[in-house]
Amino acid sequence: MLFNSYIYIFAFLPVTLIGYFFLNQKKSSNIAKWWLLCMSLVFYGHYKKGHIPIIIGSIIFNYLIGFFLTKTHRGPHIKKILLFTGIMGNVALLSYFKYFDFVIENINYCFKTHFSLMSLLLPLGISFFTFTQIIYLVDAYKGKITNHDFVNYGLFITFFPHLLAGPILHHKQMIDQFNDENNKQINYQNIAIGLLLFTLGLAKKLLIADTFATYANTGFAAPSSLSFLESWTTSLSYTLQLYFDFSGYSDMALGSSLMFNVALPINFNSPYKATTIQDFWRRWHITLSNFLRDYIYIPLGGSRVNELATCRNLIITFLVGGFWHGAGWTFFFWGLLHGIGLVIQRVWQKTSIIIPNLLAWFITFNFVNIGWVFFRAPDFDTALTMLTGMIGFHGFFPSSSLITIILIIIFLAVCFLAKNSQQLTENFKPTVGSSIVVALLLTCSVLCLRSYSEFLYFRF
Fold this sequence. Notes:
Elements: H1 6-25, H2 29-45, H3 52-71, H4 76-111, H5 126-141, H6 150-158, H7 160-163, H8 171-179, H9 188-221, H10 228-259, H11 277-281, H12 286-297, H13 307-325, H14 329-351, H15 357-376, H16 380-390, H17 402-417, H18 421-425, H19 432-447
């Protein structure tokens, strides 16, 4: 089910919300959790019912591994075996659906074989609930899990606001909030802020991201025909589409969750204001960045080793991050590009040469924008054709719509200068005026609802 759909806005969300607080009011908090768990599975299965057994099977497998990790007293070697089994089980499930065909394609290409592809449909959110469960198992191994209860665990994994595209959570970040007695009553301030966040996110998705998607899709479909200006218009359109799409999803996820008195961690913090690549990754997909740091970079040795090994660790970490995003060499290269960017930044910092903030921002943004070309392109030929157009190899004479250019300028300014959603909701108090504005924005967004317009991160 999509956040930006009639069924979610006018049926699923209000019914789930009313049922949850009604059951809590009747002092049936455990039943309320089961209600929310079951409704989250309904939300997940709305797209494809056949994927429900996959996520349920994954939950049961990880719950049992976590149970034995928290209960076993037979020595650290047993716990290590259990942890290894759990992690490998999760990686195997993800690899089967996400990377099996990729491996077969490359075997066929390298060895001129003709193995058939499985053409598997990737279960929505599998990259996110896989990482979330790996975090849980590691926490259980380290003794950080004190309440290993099935409904709590199942709800932690399936809670619908974060299920399909994050944020990637730690168990304690969410379950403690569900167990807090103060959160079992309707909080109208949270409802108001949640509705504001949801409306802002819906508007970002439908009014901005989907508009730029049209321009980006047209350009990437025929990159060889694009002039210098058209190539930049196309790349910047995708850069803005991705920004407002992911920002919109993050707002809707946080807003939906807050209505249930559950505050999800911030996952998006004005990333195009970044003045370094490191700063960008502290602002973009924050929980994924934290996962890569804590579970890939630091175990590799992080920055505690010599300089050459640190640079190696950065590149490996971002190769994993790139490959996590998609089974394709363009994603792999995009991750490599960001890893190299971080290495260059690290080496530059050793020189103690300070770059003016405006220039640092300009370099960072253009690096990110060029990286998104590989992220978006279906293959290297398309990406390279787009990049050669961006440096003028296809001519300079523009035929781009003036309206497109104006919209790009306006919304780039919004990214660079405007307050983000979290800043707008700080100390927010609903008034008649703000209620009217939210109602009008929500109405405009609903009127623009399409039959199907999924979020970009749903496929990762």
